[in-house]
Design goal:
The protein is mainly α. It folds into two domains: 198 residues, Growth Hormone, Chain: A (Up-down Bundle); 207 residues, Growth Hormone, Chain: A. 74% of the residues lie in helices and 0% in strands. Helix 4 packs parallel to helix 8. The radius of gyration is 24 Å and the shape is globular. It starts with 6 loop residues before the first helix and ends in a 5-residue tail after the last helix.
């Protein structure tokens, strides 16, 4: 019998399991944001500026043919559609993080992406069917993707060495890379194939990725069939006792919810994402209505900030891990330094945008620099939950993303309310002022309350069942008695 390995097997033997995880997470978060932001660029083409029949009709043939499948939605309705994503998103952040801690992030992240891809594929049909149907699909899409971000943290806790976690967190910022690629592609797809092609393309690729994820990724090194003994030992020895081998059966809610470091993460995350989502969702509209870019220019220029953010995320993460490994910065100092760098300057830049945002070159430059600097959150607060409580990192991130999801919905409502039938630079100046205040406040709170130290409540004692004796604790106490 021949013992020669197949070409596929030889290739996989050359790649470590962590490298495969890195690649799949990068691609996963690229697609995660492609599934989310495709509507923000497509809606510019979906909406007609002329009077056409409303979407609310039961004649599907009329709907498909009316104004080239364009819909007569005003700014409030458009922001209502964009904001509906967060109704579902906010519901699964915390449950998704906790579920990943209990059953593993592989299943939670994989299924969230799988069903989000299916929902993306049916989005054009929902839009043509009824305005309400589109909203329902977007709510369900948010419901699925809400669990994806916190689900990764429990996987990091068992797969990635503590001193490499900033670098791995930068993989999550591949979402920005996904947006940078998605926006110009969407612009060209819309021009040559129509807006429906945007959803078919992103949903189809997401479906392929989901199948590949379940075929290549496993919950932990202990259950991976291909991992080498050396790689498994390296991971488990580096992680040591920071993460329980047996998952804690309950969350120490009192200690967690009264922890200053936890609230530092939650509040700065909410502030940072509030600004990010406002720019993500509103930049195409601002460029069209205030700066007067066409759809192809819009898609290309809207992508620049995301590309810059990803480059910064990778650079800052590698620098932070290097400084920590060389003992030049403590984990606490690194988290505070990079968080301040990522959140405070964007706030100051929004102040500059108030005065010079009407200039096309200046506005695009400021938006690009602002989101580029914000990418450094991967070396700051984004992975801070893994520092202070790796056993509950999914729960902490779920709490933080719940607040940020609410802020994402509020940002859409805020912009829609301020610019309703009044798409002027003066109204957008108010938006920029609000963003500046939120960014600056969040960075100051984290500077005072943040830390990188492991918290005592990370390893809570298991609760005893009724009638169970405390035998294990009793023996050492008896042995340590001083006999006179």
């Amino acid at each position: 019998m021949s013992t020669e390995k197949s070409p596929i097997r030889r290739v996989t033997d050359m790649i470590s399991c962590r490298q495969v995880l890195n690649v799949m997470v990068i691609l996963g978060f690229m697609l995660n944001y492609a599934l989310r932001v495709n509507l923000t660029i497509a809606i510019v083409s979906m909406v007609s500026n002329t009077t056409v029949p409303l979407l609310n009709t039961t004649d599907n043939t009329t709907i498909a043919e009316s104004a080239g499948q364009r819909f007569n939605w005003d700014s409030l309705q458009q922001n209502f559609v964009l904001g509906s994503f967060f109704w579902g998103y906010i519901l699964t952040e915390l449950p998704g993080g906790r579920l990943a801690e209990l059953i593993g992030g592989r299943r939670v992240f994989g299924h969230s992406m799988l069903w989000a891809s299916v929902l993306t594929l049916i989005t054009p049909f929902a839009a043509m069917l009824h305005y309400v149907a589109l909203i329902i699909v977007r709510v369900l899409l948010g419901f699925m993707l809400g669990a994806s971000w916190p689900a990764i943290h429990p996987m990091i806790a068992v797969w990635i060495k503590p001193m490499d976690r900033s670098k791995f967190m930068s993989n999550m910022m591949a979402s920005s890379l996904g947006a940078a690629i998605t926006m110009p592609i969407c612009g060209f797809l819309i021009e040559y194939c129509g807006w429906t092609s945007v959803f078919y393309a992103t949903g189809g690729v997401g479906l392929i990725w989901s199948i590949t994820w379940f075929m290549t990724i496993y919950e932990s090194p202990a259950v991976h069939p291909r991992i080498t003994t050396e790689e498994r030992r390296e991971i488990e020895e580096a992680i040591g006792n920071t993460t329980s081998k047996k998952r804690p059966s309950y969350v120490p809610w009192r200690q967690l919810l009264t922890s200053g470091p936890v609230w530092a993460i939650i509040l700065v995350h909410g502030a940072s994402v509030f600004g990010f989502f406002t720019v993500v969702n509103q930049l195409p509209t601002y460029m069209k209505n205030v700066l007067h870019f066409n759809i192809k220019e819009n898609g290309l220029l809207s992508s620049l900030p995301y590309l810059g953010k990803y480059i910064m995320a990778v650079s800052a993460s590698y620098l932070a891990d290097y400084l920590r490994q060389a003992n030049r910065l403590s984990t606490t100092a690194a988290r505070k330094l990079f968080t301040t760098f990522a959140v405070l300057p964007p706030g100051l830049m929004m102040i500059a945008q108030i005065f010079m945002g009407h200039n096309r070159v200046f506005a695009v430059t400021i938006f690009t620099i602002q989101l580029t600097l914000n990418g450094a959150v991967t070396a700051g607060y984004l992975g801070n939950g893994l520092d202070i409580a790796p056993n509950f990192s999914g729960t902490i991130f779920g709490l933080a993303n719940t607040l940020s999801s609410l802020s994402g919905f509020l940002s859409n409502f805020m912009v829609g309310w301020l610019t309703h039938k009044n798409q002027t630079y003066g109204q957008w100046q108010i938006v920029f002022g609000i963003l500046a205040g939120v960014y600056i406040t969040g960075s100051i709170i984290y500077l005072f309350l943040g830390t990188g130290e492991l918290q005592e409540w990370n390893n809570p004692p298991e609760r005893k069942k009724k009638g169970e004796e405390d035998a294990e604790e009793g023996v050492p106490l008896k042995n340590n008695k001083i006999i006179s």
